[in-house]
Design a protein that fits this description.
With 247 residues, the chain is mostly helical. It has two domains: 112 residues, no CATH class; 91 residues. The protein is built from ten helices and four strands, in the order H-H-H-H-E-E-H-E-E-H-H-H-H-H. The strands form two sheets. It has a two-stranded antiparallel ribbon. Strands 3-4 form a two-stranded antiparallel sheet. A hairpin with a 2-residue loop joins strand 1 and strand 2.
Length: 247
Amino acid sequence: MVCCLGLTLGISCYINRLLQPLYDQATRSTTFFKASNAVHALENYTKEARLQSNTLFATVHVNHLCTIMPHEQLTEPLQHFLYDYVPDRQVQGLTVDAIIELIRFVLQNQYFIFDNKIYRKIKGCGFGQPQLRTTINHDNDIEPRGLSFISNHPPVMYSTLIQACLMHSAVIRSKVSDFHNERRDVQIVFLNNGYSINFITEHVEQLFQDFHISNWKSNLNQSTYDKMREEIIEYDQQHQEMKIKQR
């Protein structure tokens, strides 16, 4: 298998660096990188009057995909993808055919030890192997609220975490009342972690100032919240685009 000491690990990582930007570019409009992307897409879908009373939503779970598919079923779709999205049939000087052959070489040279015997995998790829990934679903049972997970961060990071939690809440909550509930949750979590109310209030106030809301306790209504939320969504999208380009 391709593991931290595997002989084919270098090839696998190299191919992943070549293909990941292509995949990100091709699937950007249909891929949710995080929960807020799904919320924003649904809001746009509604604004376009495409959400109907009979609209159906489906969740598809594919278990153990990377272990059950024959190697050719893994490489053939990838080959078609590259032919469609790489017009000159080259990625950074490496031809599509050469890329496919390298992938076949990696897949065909996956070994593991069981009961003191060496076996070769003839289906799927190793769990530790870099591969193209996509996030297609946000499960509300896993993340039922907008509050980000706060743990194992050094104290110096908490000032930015407060604002990050509030921004995340704004992106996924369209109603100002729901946002206030999330804001209270954030403040309680930080209070329970030993941070003073003055420290928390300072950084909450800073967030509203950054997005042009003065005296938010009096002025934050649904209308002003909608404007602030649009600014936060735009900022979030720009930040996400920058992270994708830096991959």
